[in-house]
Amino acid sequence: MQQVKAVIARAKGQPVELVTINVPDPGPGEALVQVQACGVCHTDLHYREGGINDDFPFLLGHEAAGVVEAVGPDVTGIAPGDFVILNWRAVCGECRACKRGDLQYCFNTHNATQKMTLADGPDAGTELSPALGIGAFAEKTLVAAGQCTKVDPSARAAAVGLLGCGVMAGIGAAINTGGVTRGRSVAVIGCGGVGVAAIAGSALAGASPIIAVDISAKKLEAAKRLGATHTVDSSQVDAIEEIKRICAETYDGADGADVVIEAVGRPETWKQAFYARDLAGTVVLVGVPTPDMKVPDLPLIDVFGRGGSLKSSWYGDCLPDRDFPMLVDLYQQGRLDLDAFVTEEIGIDDIEAAFDKMHDGDVLRSVVIL
Ligand code: APR
Ligand code: ZN
Ligand code: ZN
Predict the structure, then answer these.
(1) pLDDT tens, 133-149?
(2) Could you tell me which of 218, 192, 241 has the C-alpha nearest to residue 365?
(3) What is the pLDDT of residues 296-316, one digit of tens each?
(4) pLDDT value of position 357
(5) Which of 71, 281, 303, 365 has CB 3.0 to 4.6 Å from 277, enough for a Cys bridge?
(6) What mean pLDDT, rounded, does the chain reach?
(7) Are strands 309-312 and 277-285 parallel, antiparallel or unpaired?
(8) Closest-lying ligand 1 atom to the alpha carbon of residue 191
(9) Short-list 226, 229, 234, CA closest to 249
């Protein structure tokens, strides 16, 4: 066992705290990872606010890259010294989804078996709940070996670690879920980290036009840098009409985009996506709605009559061992600008400040360097 510094959310709505935690030596199926960089994601804030569940205290952080320090006795495939991105989809290979070949829907993804615990104070020994089974706002963390995906060790940790969650969700929403490719038009509604990643993924796949829609001009600038060919400020103009107009300019007879990606997670923007797609097009919902949200007044005849498919995308339908090394290689070749997602590098003490900055529109990702 080792003691390391880590950031936890002790109780609902309370500011995060820097504490010392106990990290067990890796047992069977586990790996101990020295974290080098970890992005600050909305999901960490949702955990802190009690929006995910009540299993406080949480060990936050889950968009990380680092170096394997030790592995459990039976672990093959990764070894001490390997540079890895942590993932929250270590597929089991044995559940019904895995057996029928839908690994991205695995019902039994793996996490570390042993628990990390608080080291000091009156509640020393309390077990921690790692965010998304990772917990990487820590100098070291214990995960399932399958949560470590080996990638090119010369890549910048702060940039490629972001593939561990939000950036993969966006790229995968376009490429894996939406089937975006050359010759297809794409519109992305909501240009935060996830939406902009969907734009970068669409650009990588060769789609055109790629239309970025947001209510914030600043976000639209970032979208342009990552490959949007057109931008639509939907606080000023009707997003559906604009998307249809732009697509018709490129493709004769087009009546909307082939793929519309909703990266906000709200009924009104999902409905815009629904009506902005061309006949037989695809809507991908990657934004996460809250349980109370409903889509009002959607005539069933429009669902039937417009054909196509209405999909949701969890973690970009990614398979980490297939997708991370490939995307890191594209990054290393200069074809995928992951650096553009890293707005600032911060210390482990600056996470509360990073939460505050999330909503001001200037930050795609703050990344903690450990
Ligand atoms: N129309 C268009 N864009 C909107 C609207 C709207 N009505 N409301 C908000 N937006 C934009 C915001 O301006 C912002 O740029 O949506 C974007 C949301 O971005 P972030 O808050 O940075 O969130 P992000 O990390 O990109 O995640 C987006 O995906 O994974 C989920 O939980 C996550 O639901 C969230 C979504
Ligand atoms: Zn499975
Ligand atoms: Zn995340």
Answers:
(1) 999 999 999 999 999 99
(2) 192
(3) 899 999 999 999 999 999 999
(4) 92
(5) 281
(6) 97
(7) parallel
(8) 15
(9) 229
Q: Would you list the DSSP string of 254-311?
A: --SEEEEEE-S--HHHHHHHHHHEEEEEEEEE-S---TT----S--HHHHHHH-SEEE
Q: What is the DSSP letter of 24?
A: P
DSSP string, 308-328: SEEEE-SGGG--HHHHHHHHH
Which amino acid, residue 199? I
Grouping H, G, I as helix, E, B as strand and the rest as coil, residue 229 is coil
Residue 197: CB within 6 Å of ligand 1? no
Q: Who contacts 269 (Cβ-Cβ below 8 Å, separation ≥6)?
A: 189, 190, 262, 287
DSSP sequence for 100-139: TT-GGG-SS----SSPPEE-SSTTTTPBPEEGGGT--SBS
- What's the rounded Cα separation, in Å, for the pair 6 and 187? 39
CB of 189 closer than 6 A to ligand 1?
Answer: yes
Cα 203 from chain centroid (whole Å): 18
- Residue 349 near residue 366, CB atoms below 8 Å: no
Task: Say how far apart CA 262 and CA 359 lie, in whole Å.
Answer: 18
Nearest ligand, CA 86: 3
**Ligand 1 binding pocket includes 313 (Cβ within 6 Å):** no
- For residue 155 and ligand 1, the question of a CB distance below 6 A is answered with no
Nearest to 243 by CA among 268, 221, 212: 212
